[in-house]
Each structure stands twice: as C-alpha cells, then as structure tokens.
Amino acid sequence: MQAYFLRIDELILYIVKRFTIKQIRGYNLK
Question: What percent of the chain has pLDDT over 70?
Fold first, then answer.
C-alpha cells in the first residue's frame, strides 16, 4: 500500500513539474 501512495506522490510531482515548466515557457514567450 505504501508503494502505491509513493507512486501517486511521484506522479503528482511529475505533473507539477511539467505544469511549472509549461508556465515558465509561456511566461518567457510573453
């Protein structure tokens, strides 16, 4: 069960990282 939660945590972290990079790129384009 712990490994499952760890996986979700990593997934959220990955999504947040991708979203932040997307935001930074969009900001730089402006």
Answer: 87
CA angle 11, 20, 22 (to 5 degrees): 105
Q: Indicate the domain borders of the chain.
A: 1-30
Rounded Cα distance between 30 and 13, Å, is 26
Q: How far apart are CA 6 and CA 14, in angstroms?
A: 12
Identify the three-state secondary structure at position 1: coil
Question: How many Å apart are CA 21 and CA 27, to the nearest integer?
Answer: 10
Single pTM value for the model: 0.55
